[in-house]
Amino acid sequence: MMETNSSSALEDLVKQATTAAERSYSPYSGFKVGAALLLSDGHVVTGTNVENASFGLTICAERSALVRAVSEFGPGIRIAAVAVAYLNEAASPPCGACRQMLAEFAGPEVPIIFPASTGSTTMRFDEVLPLAFDMKLKEGPRKA
């Protein structure tokens, strides 16, 4: 288990994301992606992309890791850091759907590290998704 989101902890998280990317099922695009989520309790959960002949049914690595984290640890999880790795060395942050899904469990200060054209980039979550959709249902339903 990891306990911090220090530089060395983020590097280890990237290594775990890279290992997950090696397990990618991506026969159609060849785009091998892995993600590793550091949870606030120190656990690390990984996921990889799983493609389908009907591309709309493909699941990204980030969502795969998130679904696994909720399945293993329950809906009360909080994300402390996110790492994404691409084996094809493409420059790309998580897609919009993944950003929105992660927003349910990650605060604005959470670091996210991903490959960019100039090497690895680390940004705060609120920089990657500045205007996340939020219905505020976590605070209870609205009163009429």
Q: Which helices and strands appear, and what pairs or packs with what?
A:
Blueprint: H1 7-21, E1 33-39, E2 44-48, H2 61-73, E3 79-86, H3 96-103, E4 111-116, E5 119-124, H4 125-128
Parallel strand pairs: 3-4
Antiparallel strand pairs: 1-2, 1-3, 4-5
Can you summarize this structure?
It contains four helices and five strands. With 144 residues, the chain is of the alpha+beta class.
CATH homology superfamily name: Cytidine Deaminase, domain 2
Kindly identify the CATH topology.
Cytidine Deaminase, domain 2
What is the level 1 CATH name?
Alpha Beta
Which CATH architecture?
3-Layer(aba) Sandwich
The total number of structural domains is: 1
Largest sheet: number of strands, sense, barrel closure: 5 strands, mixed
What is the terminal separation in angstroms? 45 Å
Radius of gyration equals: 15 Å
* Main β-sheet, spatial strand arrangement: 2-1-3-4-5
| Total of DSSP H or I helical runs spanning 4+ residues | 4
Mean pLDDT: 88
Total strand count, please?
Answer: 5
The SS-based structural class is alpha+beta
Q: Which word captures the global form?
A: globular
Helix content range of the residues, please?
25-40%
How do the helices and strands follow one another from N- to C-terminus?
HEEHEHEEH
Runs in which pLDDT lies below 50 for 5 or more consecutive residues are none
